[in-house]
Amino acid sequence: MSSAEISKRLNGRDLINIGIYTAIYFVVVMALAMTGLIPICLILLSSMIAVVGGIPFMLFLTKVKKPGMILIMSVIMGIIMFVTGMTWMPIPVSIVTGLIAEFVYWRGNYSSIKSAILTTGVFPLWACGNYLPLFLQREQYFADRASYGEEYAAQVMQLTPDWMFIVLVVATFVCGIIGGLIGKALLKKHFEKAGIA
Fold it and tell me: Which residues contact 186 (CB under 8 A, 6 or more apart)?
């Protein structure tokens, strides 16, 4: 096995970086999720995650030089959503969006700032998986949240016609790009040090 092949394998340091940045990202997600008790904030949640989470995620990208790191982080987020009370739906979504994000950054050879920003637009799309039960299993979704009250359910339903899911996906991607641009501005020295231009 060549040294080049060995260097492409994830090592302990890579896994530690994945763990650290996933934890940071998770804290951001959970803090923002608290706002979901307000109907409009529930609808804006994936977009807020994309903007605010884009900053630590951009810092994570300065550590990514091998395939698999972004995918692992994405899948972990999907699993965490399942464990914390969402359905299984975020898991397959996180796999698909993680693979796309991996491909985008790989295409930039892990050294393109444009690819990094585009990857930051794609990555938070995993969060849209959280909305699938709302659109595909409405009765069960609101039954599980009966304690929120009928007024809450009525407002959420009013804000989420079937076509809104596509709007949420597009808005999340755009907000991810914005988060990436903010991250680029705030973390300029880190990108220079990592050789990302």
Answer: 55
Task: Say which residue the tokens 């990555």 belong to.
Answer: 123
Contact by Cβ (8 Å): 179, 57: yes
CB atoms within 10 A of CB 111: 14
Residue 63 CA to its chain's centroid (Å): 17
**Residue that is written with structure tokens 């996180």 in the block:** 94
Q: How many CA atoms lie within 13 A of 83 on its CB side?
A: 7
Q: Which amino acid is at 11?
A: N
Q: What are the boundaries of each domain within the chain?
A: 3-194
3-state SS class at 160: coil
The count of C-alpha atoms lying within 13 angstroms of the C-alpha of 78, restricted to the half-sphere facing its C-beta, is: 24
Q: pLDDT, tens digit, for every residue of 21-58? A: 999 999 999 999 999 889 999 999 999 999 999 999 99
DSSP 58-87: HHHHTT--STTHHHHHHHHHHHHHHHTT--
In this prediction the pTM is: 0.90
Sequence-separated contacts (24+) of 81-90 with Cβ below 8 Å: 81/129, 81/130, 86/129, 86/130, 86/133, 87/132, 87/133, 87/137, 89/129, 89/130, 89/132, 89/133, 89/136, 90/126, 90/127, 90/129, 90/130, 90/132
